[in-house]
Design brief:
Elements: H1 4-8, E1 13-19, E2 22-27, E3 34-39, E4 46-47, E5 66-69, E6 74-79, E7 88-93, E8 100-101, E9 110-118, E10 123-130, E11 136-142, E12 147-154, E13 159-163, E14 169-177, E15 180-187, E16 196-199, E17 218-222, E18 228-233, E19 241-246, E20 249-259, E21 268-277, E22 280-287, E23 290-299, E24 304-312, E25 321-328, E26 333-339, E27 346-351, E28 357-360, E29 378-379, E30 382-383, E31 389-395, E32 407-413, H2 429-438, E33 442-447, H3 456-460, H4 469-481, E34 487-497, H5 499-510, E35 517-521, H6 527-533, H7 539-545, H8 552-560, E36 574-579, H9 587-599, E37 604-609, H10 619-637
Parallel strand pairs: 20-24, 32-33, 32-34, 34-35, 35-36, 36-37
Antiparallel strand pairs: 1-2, 2-3, 3-4, 5-6, 6-7, 7-8, 9-10, 10-11, 11-12, 13-14, 14-15, 15-16, 17-18, 18-19, 19-20, 21-22, 22-23, 23-24, 25-26, 26-27, 27-28, 29-31, 30-31, 31-33
Amino acid sequence: MYRIESLLSGRLFLRPQLVEDRLYFISNLSGRLSLYAMDLGGSVPEPLLPPDLALQNPHLLDGESFCVLPRLGKILVMIDHDGDENYQPCLIPLAGGYPEPAFGEQLAHYRVHLFKCDPERGLAYFSAEARHAQMMAAFRGDLRTGGLEQMGQSPWGCFVAGVSGDHSHVILVDVFLTGDHVVYLWKKGTGPDGRKLLYGTPREQRTPGEPVTLNAINRCFFTPRHRGLLFITALFSDAFGLGYFRLNHPEAMKPVTVRGAAHGDAAGELVNLTHLDGDRYLVEYNLDGCSWLYEGVFDESTLTMKLGAVICGRGQLAGGVLESVHYDRPNNRYALAFSSATSPTQLYVVSGARRSAVKAQTRERVLGIPADLLSPGEPAPFTTFDGLRVSARLYLPAPALDFKGPRPLVYYVHGGPQGQERPDFAWFSMPLIQYLTLNGFAVFVPNVRGSTGYGLSYVKKVDRDWGGDDRLDHVHALKVLAGDARLDVRRAAVVGRSYGGYMSLTLAARHPELWSAAVDMFGPYDLLTFSERMPESWKPYFRDSIGDPADEKDRAFMAERSPRTYIQQITCPMLVIQGHNDPRVAEQESRDVVERLRKMGKSAELLVFENEGHDVLKYENRVRCYNEITEFFKRYLKP
């Protein structure tokens, strides 16, 4: 039988930065995520951090994980402690070393996120969550002097969304709910309260019940001489597009026409915009989970973005997920990380006049498992109970494995809820999916309402409706899957992480007849205690997105949507997995589940990783976690 160690032999290579002829990147080469460098073209990777330190999964980190500063001879690295997410900006020498706080103790009481860094000038921009108050602040830091300048603060984010080339103008955005953004302009010298409203209506100026037009403005870039602002917005397309306004007339926003796309009419979203130089940009799309990346040229006079060379989406960079991309401006080339459902993350350098030179820098592979035994998955969209189309993928054991008869089903629910399951080997789920198929299971992965990747209105369908129509989508999916002769839905299990853990608990408790086993990975059990235990700076957002525990009506609603209310109805065995340092879903949430089930005489197992947070990242923990889940399902589903 194949081992999970074979799948995990393909190590992670994430967030590459190409500086001169050196590649800097995050990898778990040592069994934990850390920072490395190697020569372009290949050399033995050199560790840049002490072996006792572990970096966070970049997918859980808002902003950047690190920035190379060759002029300063330093690297700026965001450091937390074993997943507690209390990130602090630290500096190490370019050749590596022990990290020292970049700004002394000035940010010690914040959870800090790096949103932009200028290696030439040594300036960095941070959004910082107060650790003991419902407030966030935006800072500009001078990495040469250690000086900090506060640009503004707000309970709603004050996120850094754009910085002018000369650093005189900054765009700050408050986010009340997904898509409900208010945009401010800050100018150098105006101090910590110098934000000027550009677009949207601040919360304090709204009347109760006032309708709000969702703009979702993000990824903002100043045009030459600060004449205008180019950005991503949902005002002109539910699947997001580009918008523009003159800084002196922000109310006169106009759409930007995008021409030259080569990806056809596949369902998806415009997800990223990056300025290269002059009028050149990178434009990225997520098309039903797969990445397409273009170079584009913006014409401010005609408000047109003309797409040109395809960086990702064709050839060997097709059918998978672009983890990140970095533009090496002096040499006009790109470093990127890319993976698919069957290939671990690889580092590539893309160059040439038409970007046709694609050279792999790594050769990560799954050991001892022939490629034809891995499952690429197949599209499995369905129409749900109210006529809404739901995208999904079904992973079946490879024919070469020669399993006989209908396969027991593992139903996998992604986190978020405003997330998306993608064919991405860099994320926790894909090694698990492949390991389950190797053991004879079929794995169904839906992106039900509330998921990203299918337009803003689709994402918004889960606001203040956790455990409502999203739950019914999952229940309906089981009815659809029952008609597939390749599956045996009478032997079905559900598993999910974070919000997916919440949904696994909800489905096991409210629809016990559907499941033979369930796994909850750090999922909220009681929405009221979950809201009380989360970080203070998160509470304003979650009061809007789930409910306000201080409001009597909301409190009753949150109780009604909590798995705790229905826990006595669970009949299947339950495995609960938790990271001790998790700041998002406190360990006690998981302990509450297991203690309550055991008191009722039900089967409940608890697995706590003492040195993990809201993820399972360290090699020995991943091996145990994947094995525990798979053996648990084998015990009760008998593939």
